[in-house]
Design a protein that fits this description.
8-stranded parallel β-sheet, 10 strands, two-stranded antiparallel sheet, alpha/beta, 10 helices, binds 6-hydroxymethylpterin-diphosphate, globular
Length: 296
């Protein structure tokens, strides 16, 4: 598999040799999976502690978000999102040496997070919700994740329909990558994401995972965020988010086989282990030879 690079500010992320793991740090009180870290006094110390642990567990990058995008969620006002995200990025920048991404649709949050040390913007609206977002990303020279979503978090799960979900998501992402290029954001800075769980029924999510290679044709690394999502719970008879780790592991392992470049996950330690083994199966053992010391 050929190596590729993503340019984000001063940092370069290498793709192609192995699957990267993005750890989710939700600075929220209401994230769908119950991992939100905005839990009263001392929350910033907790963010740093969890971020450090994720990096120790093998996270390649961290994604900091201050607004839940769970189905039906109301938007968070700008001032409140800034109050959550900017100090978190500042503190993490001092504490860890991996690229930091900011999960936001608001240009001002992105701008201040980038100034505080973030390297990428993860925009679930693919630069559509805030007219200033493209300019902020272009001016900063940072990386950007463009994700597919049908509707908005408020209404996206109201009976979503597609004629051909893979073709529609691919066409959408292709149009957004081209649009971003016209705004001064080169393809070398873009990651695409089919948006697992964003305006999709379980069968749509599964179909998208099966066809991840289609999105590779856009010439950008492909990210997938299946972690603890309701499709996984539904497949397991309605298990709650805290019990979706094994189901998430199945999606992550198969996503590696289907060509994903980055997986966005909550359970970093477990998913790093899943990815290591899946990568060895799919990509071979290059670089792993020296590790074999046990006799059983
Ligand atoms: N999923 C969530 C949030 N941001 N970004 C990308 N690129 N891809 C995803 O699949 C994705 C995302 C939802 O998960 P989470 O952040 O854990 O929940 P919440 O939005 O409720 O905080």
């Amino acid at each position: 598999m050929t190596a590729r690079q993503l340019l984000c500010g001063q940092r370069v992320l290498q793709f192609g040799h192995r699957t990267l793991v993005m750890g989710v740090l939700n600075v929220t009180p209401d994230s769908f999976s119950g991992d939100g870290l905005l839990t009263g006094p001392g929350w910033l110390d907790r963010v740093v502690e969890v971020g450090r642990q994720m990096v120790a567990d093998g996270a390649d990058l961290l994604d900091v978000g201050g607004e839940s995008t769970r189905p039906g969620a109301d938007p968070v006002p700008l001032g409140e999102e800034l109050r959550r995200v900017v100090p978190a990025v500042e503190a993490l920048r001092q504490a860890v040496d991996v690229p930091l991404s900011v999960d936001t649709t608001k240009a001002e949050v992105a701008r201040q997070a980038l100034r505080a040390g973030a390297d990428l913007v993860n925009d679930i609206s693919a630069l559509r919700f805030d007219p200033d977002m493209a300019r902020v990303v272009a001016d900063a020279g940072c990386g950007v994740v463009l994700m597919h979503m049908k509707g908005t978090p408020k209404d996206m799960q109201r009976d979503p329909h597609y004629r051909d979900v893979v073709a529609e998501v691919r066409d959408f992402l292709e149009e957004r990558v081209r649009w971003a290029q016209r705004q001064g954001i080169p393809r070398e800075r873009v990651v695409v994401d089919p948006g697992f769980g964003f305006g999709k029924r379980p069968e749509h999510n599964l179909e998208l995972v099966r066809h991840l290679r289609t999105f590779r044709e856009l010439g950008c690394p492909v990210l997938l965020g299946p972690s603890r999502k309701s499709t996984v719970g539904w497949l397991l008879g309605g298990l709650p988010p805290a019990e979706r780790v094994e189901g998430t592991a199945a999606v992550v392992a198969l996503a590696v086989a289907f060509g994903v470049d980055v997986v966005r996950v909550h359970d970093v330690r477990a998913m790093v282990r899943v990815v290591r083994v899946a990568d060895a199966l799919v990509r071979g053992l290059a670089g792993e030879e020296g590790r074999w010391t046990a006799s059983s």
